[in-house]
Write a structure and sequence with these properties.
Length: 888
């Protein structure tokens, strides 16, 4: 109780008072609050405030356990709204700050969401402080001369709640405590020891006794100031705990120092520091000491023992006699060699490239935040622009972060950067913890000039960032589908703002969110409308499957003929089919039974090689179906086409050709991806078939035909982005054709050749597609015009989940009735609740609903208002997904 009360007073009153009152006055608050006031305070603080039961479970889902107890909730709500009110009143006087509604109206990207970030930690994310970061942002200790320096630490834990807890830092630990380090502190039920991050240190005294930090775990802070600010913003924007974000951002290999091995070093004590009476030494000890004195630097104990062929006895004696000393140093286990690539060919930029390079170059020279959207068709020389920008930044002594989709992290891509960009670190998902740790430490130590990596590379702890580049910025894989559910592009834009550097986002098919930002002028639009050296875009021919003979298998006669022609002329062929496995639909025609996963509402895919049926979501496997479990019929049909079956068909139709399949089943071993692509480049493979793995970024000049087996696969999913995704994948895969002097073409098999999305992709007409699709989005209130948040409620108890979804949606509806919230300007809509398209997943029943609002600020305000007081019954969990991608 005392602890909680202190906390309440401390964070709510004292912290805000600090803004106006000198710290010594704040200090005397302790005396100033009379005990009778304290007593009456006690009476009206709800009893639930005290209990912190069960908040240990680490979960990305918010559960009854994961919620702060009631009292805490109402407190934090009070804090937020009070503080916002206070800030607003000071805002009026201080001039040019934008108001919340102004911010809300044009808030369309991470760059614009600023009003939801200033909360409990006094962190101001408005534009003024962004361009003008205050050094004291994280409450670095401010020494005062007159008072004893007692230290307090605000600590966040890896829990789905957005608050910090204050602990006292015992004197013995004070030299080690720092913002960004992890500590162990008693927390929750039975005061179990929990690990959390220090996010603020202060001398502002607590009014009441509080618990102590037990241990400081890190030698050095794991996070830079910039990363702390960025993660703070993420917690606010994605509505999760700051501690959860920190836990996700700092690689495990950094936390546990994986990859660092402790080395025991010995050295002789310098003569000036030797004991006055030099001890007597045995001959063995003499030899040892002499050796150590001869060496100019410390030596590893193990090495010395090996060299002198001695045990540890004499060393121990010398240590006891204070003539030598020993210490431990952590050294990297991995030596990361920095191979350099082949000597770079110097390319002269063409006219279009020159035109897009100039503004980027200017932004780099001028410094400061500037965001560019580089729309360039496949093969237009975007990468060349990125490379120039990186070279320029390196020339200035700064560092670059390059984000690419995981599957584009091919050796070919890496080579291109290696050859031109000095020392690079490649961060991909196949790294072990210790390798990841080693990279992180190299980056943090300033040994790396360019970090190339997938999503999480956006958190690379660079020391002097100069630019961020995102290739294929539209890629779904930049969105993380677990807490924190962030989008790396949006986080990157925020990071660029925080660090005050330019950012270049490139794509042949920009995300409509980005496109809209560019149209509005939030991003500067640059375009490369033609391929380099006047190479034409490949002609795309639609093969209308309604008119092709049915019995022919999945490769139509038209496509087959096209392949034969291409292969005969010495070209290579790529075939895209975005489904792995052999049969995607196993069913009984007698009674209609369909094989579905035990735990999910998803049909099982039959994998012939492994001879199992598998759920692609949860990985559940069962033996192949021989008889129907419903009617015992043995006439089971294995239908639906996967890459495995396609490979089978190809082997029959092209028996004299070398065929290779590329999907996550065949590419699970590290290095297999690179081997296959190498073989393909060297002409050792004639036909490469695969999932979207082959659609992205690859540059094979000898590919003269690209075939798409079924363009309609994703077109009819219940997802407002279905058309956009289909367009993107068709445009990307078409971009693999005709990259060399031989030219090339694309054959697309479809049942809906008249669908506008497929027709426009065939004409490489992104501008028209964007125009039409945006009109459609606007009409239906979808992103980028409206902001979206998706709430998913799940439980193993179907009725309980349904009831809670109704209740939660009802609470939102109430909150939306608030005056001023339903005018057309700020129209907030709630769709649902309804069963999620995949209703049962992993054994949970799932209901979802969506909130749509043109104003990001308002959307966040309502979300926070409701979620901070939401009481989740036992056995139910919910999740918030801000700017969701996965609608299933
Ligand atoms: P994108 O990233 O837009 O797909 P790339 O930068 O990979 O395009 O360029 C495609 C190919 O064209 C690469 O092989 C690249 O080396 C080459 N290239 C780029 N710019 C030029 C140029 N100005 N002149 C000649 N070739 C170029
Ligand atoms: Zn049956
Ligand atoms: Zn499953």
């Amino acid at each position: 109780m005392v602890h909680s009360l202190r906390e309440w007073i401390l964070s709510d009153v004292v912290h805000s008072l600090r803004e106006w009152i000198p710290s010594d006055v704040v200090h005397s608050l302790r005396e100033w609050i009379p005990s009778d006031v304290v007593h009456s305070l006690r009476e009206w603080i709800p009893p639930g405030f005290r209990s912190q039961d069960g908040i240990h479970s680490r979960s990305e889902w918010t559960t009854s356990n994961g919620n702060p107890p009631e009292g805490i909730r109402s407190r934090s709500e009070r804090t937020t709204s009070d503080r916002i009110r206070r800030k607003e009143s000071t805002r009026g006087a201080s001039g040019p700050r934008r108001t919340k509604s102004e911010l809300g109206q044009d808030a369309q990207s991470a760059t614009d969401i600023v009003d939801c970030s200033e909360r409990m930690y006094g962190i101001n994310m408005n534009t003024t402080t962004l361009t003008n970061p205050e050094s004291d942002l994280f409450g670095q200790v401010e020494p005062t001369e007159t008072l004893p320096q007692v230290m307090y630490a605000d600590i966040v834990f890896d829990l789905p709640m957005d608050r910090a807890y204050t602990y006292a830092v015992p004197e013995s630990l004070q030299p080690f405590a720092a913002v960004g380090k992890r500590v162990e502190a008693p927390f929750g039920k039975g005061d179990r020891s929990n690990v959390g991050y220090i996010v603020r240190l202060t001398h502002v005294p607590p009014v009441y006794a509080i618990k102590d930090v037990v241990r400081v775990l890190d030698e050095e802070s794991l996070l830079t100031d910039q990363l702390l600010r960025l993660t703070r913003w993420m917690a606010d924007y994605y509505l999760c705990g700051w501690g959860q974000v920190l836990h996700a951002v700092v690689p495990a290999g950094v936390r546990d120092q994986a990859g660092l091995k402790p080395t025991i070093l010995l050295e002789a004590v310098p003569s000036a520091e030797l004991p006055r009476h030099f001890p007597t030494l045995t001959p063995k000890q003499m030899i040892l000491l002499k050796k150590l004195r001869q060496l100019k630097e410390p030596i590893e104990q193990k090495l010395l023992q090996e060299q002198l062929k001695i045990g540890s006895g004499p060393i121990a004696s010398l240590l006891a006699k204070n003539v030598i000393r020993r210490y431990v140093q952590r050294t990297e286990r991995h030596t990361i060699t920095n191979e350099t690539g082949p000597a770079p060919e110097r390319i002269t930029l063409n006219k279009n490239q020159q035109a897009v390079w100039e503004p980027i170059d200017q932004a780099i020279q001028k410094g400061g935040y500037h965001s560019f959207l580089l729309h360039g068709v496949t093969g237009s020389g975007k990468t060349e622009i990125y490379l120039r920008a990186i070279e320029e930044v390196i020339r200035q002594g700064r560092e670059a972060i390059v984000l690419v989709p995981e599957i584009s992290l091919t050796p070919q891509t890496i080579e291109r950067f290696r050859g031109r960009c000095g020392s690079i670190a490649v961060m991909h998902s196949h790294l072990t913890d210790s390798e990841r740790g080693a990279h992180w430490r190299r980056v943090a130590g300033g040994f790396v000039q360019v970090v190339v990596g997938a999503r999480s590379a956006v958190f690379a702890p660079t020391r002097n960032l100069g630019i961020i580049i995102i290739d294929e910025e539209h890629e779904n894989s930049f969105k993380q589908e677990s807490t924190p559910r962030y989008h790396a592009r949006d986080v990157a834009v925020m990071r660029a703002r925080l660090e005050n550097v330019p950012i270049v986002m490139g794509s042949a098919t920009p995300a409509l969110e980005s496109w809209c930002n560019a149209e509005r002028g939030t991003y500067t639009k640059l375009s490369l409308p033609h391929r380099v050296e006047d190479r034409p875009m490949p002609p795309v021919v639609l093969v209308d499957m309604r008119h092709e003979p049915k019995s022919y298998g999945s490769i139509s006669p038209t496509l087959e003929q096209g392949m034969r022609d291409a292969l005969k002329a010495g070209g290579q062929v790529m075939l895209l089919l975005n489904r792995r496995g052999f049969s995607t639909h196993v069913h009984c025609p007698g009674c209609g039974y369909v094989a579905t996963c035990r735990d999910c509402d998803l049909s099982m895919t039959f994998h012939r090689q492994k001879n199992v049926m598998m759920c692609h979501y949860c990985g559940y496997e069962s033996g192949p179906l021989t008889a129907c479990p419903q009617c015992s019929s043995t006439a089971i049909r294995y239908q639906g086409l996967g890459t495995e079956k396609l490979e089978d068909e190809l082997a029959r139709k092209f028996s004299d050709k070398i065929i290779q399949r590329m999907d996550s089943d065949t590419m699970s071993r590290a290095g297999s991806h690179a081997r296959v692509l190498d073989a393909f480049r060297n002409g050792l493979i004639h036909i490469l078939l695969g999932t979207q793995m082959i659609a992205k970024g690859l540059d094979f000049p000898n590919v003269t035909l690209v075939g798409v087996i079924n363009a309609d696969v994703g077109l009819h999913l219940p997802d407002f982005r279905a058309a956009e995704r289909t367009f993107q994948i068709l445009a990307q895969v078409a971009g693999r054709a005709g990259r060399g002097p031989k030219g090339g073409r694309v054959l697309v098999q479809t049942h809906t050749p008249d669908h506008p999305c497929i027709a426009m992709a065939a004409h490489h007409d992104f501008l028209k597609f964007a125009h039409q699709e945006l009109a459609h989005r606007k009409m239906h209130g979808y992103p980028p015009y409206h902001r979206l948040a998706r709430l998913i409620v799940r439980s193993q108890d179907q009725t309980a989940a349904a009831n809670f979804a109704d209740l939660l949606a009802g609470t939102f509806r109430e909150a939306m009735k608030h005056p001023g919230r339903t005018t057309t300007e700020t129209e907030l809509r709630l769709l649902g609740p309804a069963e999620a398209p995949v209703f049962r997943l992993n054994g949970y029943y799932r209901f979802h609903f969506q909130l749509q609002c043109p104003s990001a600020g308002l959307l966040h305000q309502v979300l926070r208002e409701v979620l901070t007081v939401a009481k989740v019954p036992h056995g139910i969990e919910f999740q918030v997904d801000v700017d969701p991608f996965n609608m299933m």
